[in-house]
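Quick one: structure for this chain?
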Amino acid sequence: MRIAVVVFDGFDELDAIGPLEVLRNAATMGGADLSVDLVALDGAAEVTGSHGLVVRPDGPLDPGGTDLLVIPGGGWNDRGAQGAWAEAERGELPAAIAAAHRAGAVVATVCTGAMLATAAGLTRGRPAVTHHGAIEDLRTAGAEVIEARVVDDGDLVTAGGVTSGIDMALWLVERHFGAELATAVAAEIEHPRHGEVWRARPGPRPDR
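Got it. Here's what it folds into:
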């Protein structure tokens, strides 16, 4: 499984780094067949988070070569000049998210990363969650807002605010590689798993 965690100027650091650590631990601890890259849309050499952390992505986002795309938030609720709001306004990242989804990637969002999935046209008519400060924006855009820490609708997985990304990543490890590995990773990072994971009923997915 090829996993990409996409970052952009103004991203919330924990939204991205929490899931990144969980998923890389899964790769090293359990022999899970996965690779986890930190990527930027344009292959930028450095990206600066909303709290000033500077990261060096592994490379550019490859929409056609990604099985699971993790999207952080940051900068949405304050309509920042950098962050999710600005990226949604520019449109290039939502277009890349939509392209990855069309190519078969599971899209997983943390916090207001859900609003980038919304800008990509992925949440209308579908169960989803985001940071509490953006819930009304998500609802107004046509999503079915679910009050859960993690919402799993198959090819679209969304998590609430910031730290819920860790629970989402642990859930994705469990979903794809088994509960035993997810429990081991949670123990390694000393994270007590909590909060409901809402799962869609089996059946056809909404049109997208």
